[in-house]
Amino acid sequence: MTYQATIEAADKTIASQGKAWEAIDAETVARMRAQNRFATGLDIAKYTAKIMRADMDAYDANPADYTQSLGCWHGFIGQQKMISIKKHFGSTKQRYLYLSGWMVAALRSEFGPLPDQSMHEKTSVPAVIEELYTFLKQADARELGGLFRDLDTARDGGDEVEAKRIQNEIDTFQTHVVPIIADIDAGFGNAEATYLLAKKMIEAGACALQIENQVSDEKQCGHQDGKVTVPHEDFLQKIRAIRYAFMELGVEDGIIVARTDSLGAGLTKQIAVTKEDGDLGDQYNSFLDCEEVDPANIQNGDVFLSREGKLLRPKRLPSNLFQFRAGTGEDRCVLDSITSLQNGADLLWIETEKPHIGQIGGMVDRIREVIPNAKLVYNNSPSFNWTLNFRQQVFDAWQEAGKDLSAYDRDRLMSEDYDSTELAQEADEKIRTFQRDAAAQAGIFHHLITLPTYHTAALSTDNLAKEYFGDQGMLGYVKGVQRKEIRQGIACVKHQNMSGSDIGDDHKEAFAGEAALKAGGSNNTMNQFAAA
Fold first, then answer.
1. Number of domains composing the chain
2. End-to-end CA distance of the chain
């Protein structure tokens, strides 16, 4: 409904109530409705799921249409990210939010900083989703509030052309609300626990949930050692649980991202149930590291498998975990991925130990032999040393090509001494084009960085502390922060406005009329930034 149509509809409702509602202004109602387009988290999930599905179709038609996100651990960070995207690019198209379980654990748990092992409160995840969308909706309200004030100014000045232009901008306003891919870890329990948490996350606004095939109570960060996977059927139960949650809540096109940690996981907690040769359980068990056993040498407490007429003893650790054969990680990743897509998942996530397009693409090619439109969400992880990885990749390629490498020491390529070299420049170019190239060559639909804003917060705070508490004093803040905010057009320099003071003034005026005590008067020091 257009802005004018909303005014007219509200006016009819107000008129129907007679004198009792005569102080209610129809245009103010229309403005408040525009500023609160999404009444519930489910409204957001339904809206964003359609966006993400359309983006997936667009990527299938053209891999250049990949999508991106940055992980955000607080509503304000997510809000500022989307404000920046709209400012610099004019559109939020193909840009999402990512919510990392790692950052929730490290930054948002009541226990304080925790490792990424599913020890944080499961309720903290939907709470942060709700917080992110609250801040994005506030960004809408703030920007629209500015348009409403501009509209009033144009009308007061008798500029009908400008008034119509602004009204059209209101009607075509692009919301800051975008899809969020939210990390449900390994489900925080069994399939029922996964279903219950999934519902909370969807009700908070998440249209896409990412779940991994690790054991829930042994869960580790994807870039740490000690990862333990579960048999396929256990994982598929949780995928089905999430689908039921989406269906129950009416988000029938909700997206499930199935993550496999098998590449770096050498352990499993249990031997899979198998009913016939070659079934999923049998395929899972075939990767176990086993030794053939002479029936005469059976020991008390041993666990055995039978395969092809042989009695096999899986290698069991003191932790009671079973070990996979070395070198089976990629095969297990491929089987995990195919199985997940065949059983209701929409996208894949393969956690790798390095950002190598050839490695990722090799696995995707094998998956696409079975599922032609398979596509990935990929973690451009801060756990990778991107500089060293890509310099070594270039070094190895040059070495294979027979190029003279006498000026380089492969083990020291991280050194600043190499920053201006041809090798470093080629590596940086490969990093710059990594997302584009991987989308085209390795089936990556969505590129994300899990915890970039964790690092930016630490880096910017370090820089400010070094200057402010050192010789620079207040100049450390003014030169390093405020002056840059003003010159780069960072809206947050007017922090009172960003926090909602002008929105509050609009409401006070609507509620109290001339009696309203507004904060944005002549004595507001934010007026010093009027030209910013």
1. 2
2. 34
Residue 221 is among the residues annotated as catalytic for this protein: yes
- Residue 174 maps to a domain: yes
Residue-wise pLDDT for 365-413, tens only, equals 999 999 999 999 999 999 999 999 999 999 999 999 999 999 999 999 9
Query: In which domain, by residue range, is 98 found?
Result: 38-269+327-382+443-459
The CA-CA-CA angle for residues 302, 308, 313, to 5°, reads 15
For residues 480 and 447, membership in a common domain is answered with no
Q: Tokens for 64?
A: 């250049």
Amino acid at 143: E
Residues linked to residue 376 through DSSP beta bridges, in sequence order: 348, 444
In a domain, 3, yes or no: no
In 3D space, the residue among 59, 38, 64, 96 whose CA is nearest the CA of residue 433 turns out to be 64
The per-residue pLDDT for 523 is 59
Any binding-site annotation on 289?
A: no
Pair of tokens at residue 216: 């829930």
Q: Which residues of 190-208 are buried (b: 16+ CB within 10 A; e: fewer)?
A: ebeebbebbbbbbbbbbbb
Q: What are residue 311's phi and psi, to 5 degrees?
A: -95, 120
* Active-site residue, from 221, 290, 333, 492: 221
The answer to whether 187 and 197 are in contact (CB under 8 A) is: yes
Q: Which amino acid is at 53?
A: R
Of 495, 497, 481, 390, nearest to 437 by C-alpha is: 390
Question: Which residue carries 């498998």 as its tokens?
Answer: 305
